[in-house]
Amino acid sequence: MSQRTAVVTGASSGFGRLTAQTFAADGWRVYATMRNTTSKNARAAAELAAAGVSVVELDVTSDASVAAAAATILAEAGAIDVLVNNAGTGHFGIEEAFTPAAVEAQFATNVIGPLRVNRAFLPGMRAKKSGLVVFVSSVVGRFVVPFGGVYVASKWALEALAETLSYELAPFDIDVAIVQPGAYPTEIFGNTFGADDAAVVASYGDVAKISDQVSAGLGASAQGKDPQDVADAILRIANAPAGERPLRTAVPAHPVADAINAATAPLQRAVITGFGLDALLPTVVA
């Protein structure tokens, strides 16, 4: 059996780095992509390279960067087997206090970024009629948290794109999987952005302080969890038989996200059936 190839975005730290390392340890040929491979992330790039991972410069917000990275990877590996859309940032704070530019920046990374990367790699996957596209979302891709509106909206949008893609890629025998991590102690807590209109924040008075409580609560809930769980879940999905991979997987199991996933799956299938598009429905929907 020939060596399978995986591409992981946002692999300088957190879930992305662990996923790249986990796939490599399982015998995959892995391309870990990130920004600033020769500066800010040079150490991470060197450590991944030492682990047998190929590191490629890629900024998901840049057409030119994604095109160049894809050209490099596809020239070496040909069509890939698994694409893990992991790169992301978090914007948290009073929704009114985010300027449109800040919201656009959140969506540029978390929503438009994966779409851009997909466009670079999907043609090859469709040509060979096989593969898996993984979207690293969040449990808040299924519900909302006060003061998380901008970030949560980006994850809702990501899940909408991902699920829609699952139907459109079904005729090409390409699976889509949405992984929904809960709070974990990763570098995302150091890669978050607050509301950028200080005057609006100040006008909220004591209400603004409540957002600090939410942030503290998320940080506390992350403690004691091992982010390796997410990387292991992604590998399990990748190694599962094609056509038998669940559309959504919360890691760890989450009472709210799991309940919403289970409740909405048959409703969504009914919508697709109502349009007479049963042929696009996957066998596994959980």
Commentary on this structure:
The longest helix is centred in the middle third of the chain and has 29 residues, at 100-128. The chain is α/β, with parallel strands linked by helices. The mean pLDDT is 94. Helix 2 (42-50) links the parallel strand 2 and strand 3. 49% of the residues lie in helices and 14% in strands. It has a single domain (5-280), classed as Rossmann fold (3-Layer(aba) Sandwich). The protein has nine helices and nine strands. It is globular. The chain has a seven-stranded parallel beta sheet, with helices on both faces. Strands 5-8 form a two-stranded parallel sheet.
Count of spatially separate domains: 1
Weakly predicted, low-confidence segments: none
Radius of gyration: 19 Å
Measured as a percent range, the helix fraction is 40-55%
Can I get a quick summary?
Helix 3 packs parallel to helix 4 (100-128) and helix 4 runs parallel beside helix 5. The protein has helices spanning 14-25, 42-50, 63-77, 100-128, 149-169, 198-203, 207-222, 228-239, 255-274, and strands at 5-8, 29-34, 54-57, 82-85, 90-91, 131-136, 174-181, 192-193, 248-251. The chain is 49% helix and 14% strand.
